Amino acid sequence: MVTQILFVGIVLALAAQRLLELRLSRRNEARILAQGGCEHAPEHFAAMKILHTTWFLAMIVEVVWLDRPFVPLLSLGALMVLTIGQSLRYAAIRALGWRWTVRIMTLPDMPPITHGIYHYLRHPNYLGVILEMASVPLLHTAVLTALFFSLANARLLTIRMRAEEKVLSAHNDYDRAFANRPRLIPRPARPDASNKPT
User: Fold this and answer.
1) 79, 136 Cβ separation under 8 angstroms
2) Does residue 104 sit in helix, strand or coil?
3) Which end of the chain has fewer surrounding CB within 10 Å, N or C?
């Protein structure tokens, strides 16, 4: 019972964190729009909101209603993965600065961000979300939630990454800048001109 209460507290804290991020995103969106930017594929954002909201609810329901056990070793591993996921997401937010948004936004002719975590991979934020989606439910053995929402998230992010890369390629010289960088799995970047920070 105590571990369930702690788990619910962690989930609520993460939900509050997401709300603060949405607030930051809205501020950045307004700045981008004011400079002539535009939004693309808004339906993806609606789908992401539904996915994340139901994910928060589902893991609480699974842990409390199905009385999932607390497994210390599994919880420790999940906490380590969650820490990596959070680190990746905030490294992305830091690198993008005022250009970070949860919506797909572009500013015409603005060069892409290629420094910081983006020196190593194209979508560190999405990798962080993938790790969080899988790990948070496993803090209290909510295996069904971890499995179902990881699969749903993988499907959504696959569609979203393709759409995002398409519009960035059309507006921001994305193809050239990220030609030799992986989407999600980090590897040493090849030493060429496209890897120089901008």
Assistant:
1) no
2) strand
3) N
Closest Cα partner for 102 from 165, 30, 22, 41? Answer: 22
pLDDT at res. 83? 97
What are the C-alpha distances in Å from 123 to residues 60, 62, 91?
A: 28, 30, 11
Residue type, 82: L
Quickly name the fold that domain 2-195 has: Four Helix Bundle (Hemerythrin (Met), subunit A) (1.20.120)
pTM beyond cutoff 0.70: yes
- Residue 71: other Cβ atoms inside 10 A: 15
Give per-residue pLDDT as tens, 101-155: 999 998 887 888 888 998 888 899 999 999 999 999 999 999 999 999 999 999 9
**Alpha helices, DSSP H, located in the chain:** 2-34, 42-65, 72-96, 124-138, 143-171, 174-177
